[in-house]
Amino acid sequence: MASRVKRFYIGVGNPMRHDDGVGPRIAEALAALGANTLVHAGDGMALIEPFDTHSDIVVFDATQSGRAAGTITRIDATKAPVPVEIFRHSTHRIGVGEAVETARALGCLPPRLLLIGIEGQRFDPGEGLSAPVERAARLLVEEMFS
Questions:
Q1: Domains of the chain, earliest start first
Q2: What are the tens digits of pLDDT across the range 107-145?
Q3: Of all residues in the chain, what percent are helix, strand and coil, respectively (each to 5)?
């Protein structure tokens, strides 16, 4: 239980662009279970602040890499550079990958930083997640609290 108290969850995305809202959906579900969370819909560079102030972070974001919708990708961002191309579907110029690599260059990555990408299917304007992305989101919420 102690690790849950210290872990900080960040859900990145725009809920008004279908599957891009998966990060916020997961963060909101975890917050309802008592987790320490942040929903981040702004510029990616603003992610550097929590990277510098928390020691164990999990970031959820939609990906667009050509894999099947709902595919979950886990990247330990403390071990190697982040493949920024999979986190490319951002409504802002700077996405998660660029923010992580900027934080690495500035020396402010947390000791533990896990990026979890969920492959999206729809990124057009509108609300609601596609069925495979919704299933992946539910699975991840359960996993984080098991």
A1: 2-144 (3.40.50.1450)
A2: 999 999 999 999 999 999 999 999 999 999 999 999 998
A3: 40, 25, 35
